[in-house]
Design a protein that fits this description.
By secondary structure, the chain is of the alpha+beta class. It is about 30% helix and about 15% strand. A nine-stranded mixed beta sheet has the order 8-7-5-4-9-6-10-11-12. Strands 15, 16, 19, 20, 21, 22, 23, 24 and 25 form a nine-stranded antiparallel beta sheet that branches. A three-stranded antiparallel beta sheet has the order 1-2-3, covered by helices on one side. Helix 10 crosses helix 12, helix 14 crosses helix 17 and helix 25 packs across helix 27.
């Protein structure tokens, strides 16, 4: 069968469903959907998208695409699977719908389809990498780009080297979207001047065993994506060779062993690079801001003498400021700034510069300009909001103005200044943050593989690195393992590591963990994401337990959601970059008592992992109360009248006498302390004027008794005191519920802020070693009592160890089985 044509062996009786660009979808008599293409030159991913989005038959095709031809040894198994009595139904006890299950099945089928067709249609690299000879000091490969101009073919030398033998510039870039369709020509060299001519039989055999390829000569073609191709054209010199390190070319991406070994050396590589070049693209994309205008405005912001004049332009010139500011916002949305690996690449660099199109700037200058831009947001936002309001198609486009400070560009500038303490010559003297703090804080950065949420920052943490050793000094728990560990294993090991280091359960209450959904969407049409080989982990069927805190519930959600502004209230646990200071101490200084559940060792599975998590976590704690009633969630920080009523507020009394209720002239202390979580900004005690400001806010109630914090903050003539108070309220209550909680013991009822998913009857508990209480939901399964972690909460009067004072609590403490 040729690579350009594929057809079912027997299509008799099949019915044609759809034809797109020479691709025909047919259904055979056994209801198996097959793909048949005759002469397809269309880009495969776009073609598949067009097939799936083909209209009325979309759901039918997506739920049935594609039963791939299988070998004869699997036919009996597939025949047995078609028997109705042996078909397993999807489990729905966790709330999963049949439609979602069908969609996931369709995605898996489409991945199999993509991998199969890719082997038929992809551009095949012909270049064969020479294995490293580490005994001869070959640590890395460097890429020497030969001179050329314009549309001349890109020709390169690939030379093995030590970290310090050949000076090189490391390229930091976004790999880009689309397929690798641009060809470059690469030649293996022994040294910068000596080409590899012939191989010994032993070397030829090693290449065949390691690479599954035959040596056909020192040169060959490698296909790269558009963004990297543009970078190679940009950095190629007309007359002299350019030496660079580029991960996609200097590492054999198809050799898992080599890739794993090289990834462990990356932190050292960026330390030794003479320069790190940040490539933001060529600036020619449809939505790309103009490089010239961007860098001119960035340079203007560095002129501090004229800074005030720059942001205080006359109304006649304000349109120029809006245009410049809009360009910078667009630049800050560049996907390079959201890559998680850039933290390591940039933070470890001795020298770094930013290149965008034909323009370049030192990273230090670029970072200062971005920081100044963010510092002047109060002057820029009103102008941008007006423009966005005039041109926006959706409200989210307008909200994006407020989300600028939360973008990865701003976070990157902030964190690169706080990660290390350096000497005058730039050497790293001390790492400032633990692995837990890094993972919990770097929420603006994403990785294609969720495991890299942890792996990408290992070299930056102070508790994973030994200054006296060449490589990372890693505990076995967070040590990288892409092949054998499932995502649950990676997250479970990380959580176990953090608890053992910090003697705290707070890592369970900070929302940092991405799921596999984004990875599946990214990989669905990606040729690089070949389905797992036998013996490897298949994450598509994996579900994460409730005790793993998902990033979607963080203050600003996922990296993609951050541009739209706040998604949830700030975490009660909080995090300090350096001290690890806790905002509360609900269980005083008690140490956590916990154990994880593990699957029994299965020799037939082929895994050599010492422990495989089963999703169960047993934690000792104490039930302190029950959720009795609550107001509707505080959507966009709206305090609804039900919340006031739970706290005893009488709207008629207020309108007539300006009192909270009959006999209660002022706001109850429990109410105002709850809506600010009994803290002011930065986790400090609330200012003494908070109750006065809270009382004044009642003058802004809507006729129905609701209070819109955002509307009051936006009032030009509102008191600064009131705006500051409501700013704190907004950050705390956003998407949470104000609740009445029934406590046991001498106290009866109190107030609290609970997650939006909380239900009446849910339990309020304190877990030993956690700094704040949690909401748990009881459930029974197979006759066993288990609990779902709903999330952290604030309970007025129970945040400073009140639940575990004295000795009586010990007899009531028990282990909760979290699932």
């Amino acid at each position: 069968m040729s690579s350009g044509n594929y057809a079912p062996q027997n299509d008799a009786g099949s019915s044609k469903l759809l034809s797109v660009d020479g691709v025909t979808i047919v259904r055979d008599p056994r209801s198996n959907v097959r793909l048949w293409w005759k002469s397809c030159k269309t880009n495969l991913p776009s073609l598949v998208r067009r097939i799936i989005d083909c209209g009325p038959r979309r759901d039918t095709l997506k739920s049935n695409i594609l039963k791939m031809p299988s070998s004869s040894k699997n036919k009996r198994k597939r025949k047995d699977e078609r028997r109705p009595a042996q078909v397993k139904k999807p489990r729905l006890d966790d709330g999963t719908s049949h439609e979602l299950h069908a969609t996931l099945q369709a995605e898996r089928s489409l991945q199999r389809f993509r991998a199969f067709v890719h082997t038929k249609m992809k551009h095949s690299d012909t270049f064969v990498y020479m294995p490293f000879k580490e005994n001869f000091g070959e640590d890395i490969r460097v890429l020497i780009i030969e001179p050329g101009t314009g549309d001349d073919p890109i020709c390169c030398k690939l030379v093995p080297s030590t970290m310090t033998n050949i000076p090189f510039t490391a390229l930091s870039y976004f790999w880009g979207e689309g397929e690798p369709i641009h060809e470059i020509y690469v030649t293996n060299y022994k040294t910068a001047d000596e080409k590899v001519e012939q191989l010994s039989r032993e070397e030829d055999l090693i290449i065949f065993m390691r690479k599954n390829k035959r040596w056909e000569g020192p040169s060959g073609k490698i296909y790269v994506r558009s963004n990297l191709f543009a970078a190679l054209q940009r950095f190629r010199h007309r007359k002299k060779e350019m030496t660079m390190w580029i991960d996609a070319l200097c590492i054999d991406q198809n050799d898992d062993d080599e890739r794993s070994a090289q990834v462990k050396k990356m932190h050292e590589l960026y330390l030794h690079a003479k320069n790190v070049c940040v490539w933001l693209g060529d600036g020619t994309g449809e939505d790309a801001p103009d490089p010239k205008h961007c860098f001119q405005f960035l340079q203007k912001m560095l002129d501090l003498k004229n800074l005030e004049r720059l942001f205080s332009r006359s109304s006649e010139a304000s349109s120029d400021l809006v245009e410049d500011a809009d360009n910078i916002v667009s630049l800050m949305r560049n996907k390079w700034f959201s890559r998680r690996w850039v933290l390591q690449e940039l933070a470890l660099a001795r020298n770094a510069e930013v290149v965008y199109g034909e323009y370049r700037m030192l990273w230090s200058d670029f970072a200062d300009a971005i920081a100044i831009f963010i510092k002047n947001q109060d002057k820029i936002n009103p102008l941008l909001s007006k423009r966005y309001m005039e041109n926006a198609d959706y409200l989210a486009d307008v909200a994006a103005v407020d989300g600028v400070k939360n973008l990865g560009a701003n976070a990157l500038v902030d964190f690169t200044n706080n990660l290390f303490r350096r000497s005058e010559n730039g050497d790293i003297q001390q790492r400032m943050m633990t692995l837990e703090v890094l993972v919990s804080s770097l929420l603006a950065f994403e990785a294609t593989n969720p495991r890299d949420t942890i792996y990408a920052v290992l070299s930056l943490a102070k508790d994973t690195h030994s200054e006296n050793k060449r490589y990372l000094d890693l505990d076995e728990k967070p040590s990288p393992d892409y092949k054998r560990k499932s995502l649950l294993d990676v997250y479970g090991d990380f959580i176990d590591y953090c608890i053992s280091k910090s003697l705290s359960l707070d890592i369970l209450l900070r929302h940092w963990a991405p799921t596999l959904e984004e990875e599946r969407r990214n990989n669905l049409f990606s040729h690089s994401a070949i389905p797992s080989a036998p013996g490897e982990i298949r994450d598509a069927q994996e579900e994460l337990p409730s005790w793993i805190p998902l990033i979607q519930k963080s203050s600003y959600g996922t990296p993609a959601q951050r541009i739209h502004g706040r998604s949830n209230g700030d975490s009660f646990v909080g995090v300090s970059h350096r001290t690890g200071h806790r905002n509360y101490s609900a269980t005083s200084d008690l140490k956590p008592e916990y154990r994880f559940g593990f699957k029994p060792q299965d020799a037939s599975s082929g895994t050599t992992l010492k422990r495989v998590f089963d999703g169960h976590l047993f934690i000792k704690g104490l039930r302190i109360g029950t959720v009795k009633e609550f107001a509707q969630r505080a959507s966009h920080a709206m305090i609804f009248r039900e919340a006031f009523q739970i706290a005893g507020f009488d709207l008629k009394r207020w309108n007539g006498h300006k009192e909270w209720a009959l006999g209660v002239p002022r706001v109850p202390e429990g109410f105002w302390r709850t809506i600010v979580a009994d803290r002011g900004p930065n986790g400090l005690n609330p200012p003494s004027w908070y109750p006065r400001a809270c009382m004044d806010c009642l003058n802004h109630l809507r006729p129905g008794g609701d209070l819109s914090t955002k509307d009051v903050i936006a009032l030009p003539n509102a008191s600064r005191i009131v705006r500051d108070f409501l700013g704190r309220v907004k950050d705390v209550i956003w998407e949470r519920k104000f609740a009445r909680v029934k406590l046991g013991g001498p106290k009866r009822d109190t107030y609290g802020l609970v997650p939006a998913e909380t239900r009446e009857g849910d339990l309020i508990c304190v877990l030993l070693g956690a700094s704040v209480p949690v909401v748990l939901r009881k459930q029974k399964k197979d006759g066993k009592q288990q609990f779902i972690m709903v999330g952290e909460c604030f309970i007025y009067g129970m945040m400073e160890g009140e639940a575990v004072s004295g000795k009586s609590w010990k007899s009531k403490a028990k282990y909760f089985e979290l699932v």
